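Write out the 3D structure for:
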Amino acid sequence: MQQSFEQTLAGKYAQLSARLQQAADFVMANPIDVATRSLRSIARDARLTPVTFSRMSAALGYENYEALREVLRRSMEQRSNMFSTRVAQLQEQHVAGDHGFHADHFVAVSKNLKSLSASIDLAMLENCVDRLHSARKVLVIGGLGSAGIAEYLTYMTSFIADNWSLGNRVGTSLGSGLVGLAASDVLIVITKTPYATQSILAAEDAHAAGVFVIVLTDNHSCPALKYASAAFIVPSDSPHYFSSYAGTLVLTEVLTGMLASRAEGAALDRIAAVEIRNRRLKEVWSDK
């Protein structure tokens, strides 16, 4: 499964010259026009030469500009498939005797994980873990489909740290969680297409306060990226009617595992105390 233009650009954007970045920015801002209009008209609107777009395509690894346009066309087709349409497609495939969804989905998820492992910025990952380890407070937010991942991440870290909180838990105020955050704190934003408005606004608010903002998303065009101190674009392609969260789930486990490896004796004491309380409160099953 070929990477989207956004994923390709995210991995190579910093390597482009200023002129090629300008061409790439135009493509990001006008994907429909680029996919459907001639190179000459695109270059004219962007106030760049056609050669600049061809060079940008080559710098990103495409065979030529037309190959880049084809990737955009396929992406448009995928995005036009709203949830209900994709469910209908799955049902039609089943009626037609195509029962291979399970295999297709496993293959897609495996490719996503392989792509994430190969493309992740390890220096950025290490820096994020260091910031999380030294943070005064860590606030995690995730709306819509990302809410469960945000809650799982916060639950995992609650065993080794007491300074993490979930920003949009039911019965709490997101605003109250953001108040008082500063440069010594970290905000983790998990958001995927379609992006939750509260998550974007929270990232903007935290960025303005000097907070270190980590964004986990699925697309280079995610509005929260402009406020990110660090960002991970996680491959999420899938034949499912929802984007796959498998890669995002694995990334959160990587983050917490690396964080635990940096934890000192106090973290071990906390884990032991949590386990004792869990048993005392009968939160976990026991035969005894």
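The chain has a mean pLDDT of 83.
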